[in-house]
Write the structure tokens for this entry.
Amino acid sequence: MSINVQTPTDTTLVMSRSFDAPRDLVFACHTQPEHLRHWWGRGNPLDVELDFRVGGKWRFVEHADGREHAFRGEITAIDAPAGFSWTFEYEPMPGHVLREQYVFTEEGGKTTVTSSSTFDSREDRDGMIESGMEAGAEQSYRALDDYLAKLS
């Protein structure tokens, strides 16, 4: 399975990826620190601070190649296990905040995760694409595949 990336408008980016696992487990892996540490950030060591409630804050710090990559945001909606929304900001680029909505659907024991990201401008969206986001997301989701296999 590989990630599908689309740009339906000038300020949106939609990614979808399927996993060979039930929806409740895939949702938990996206929303619980004990699971996130195993795959988010391409499977590299990760510090996770997450207050998973509407209005709660999150901050993840990936440690890779002798550097730290910090991300943060706020949970804006939760409809477990169907989905959640949050804001997302890469700390070295403050003020470029995007809104992400995650939707989890299950069919035949496989779960598809669709994330829709809304940017303030086309430049912000294109900058994210040019940063290597797609490859990084695919590496993270491959790490999630491996982690889900260990859990089953």
The chain has one domain: 4-149. The mean pLDDT is 96. The radius of gyration is 15 Å. Residues 133-151 form the longest helix (19 residues).
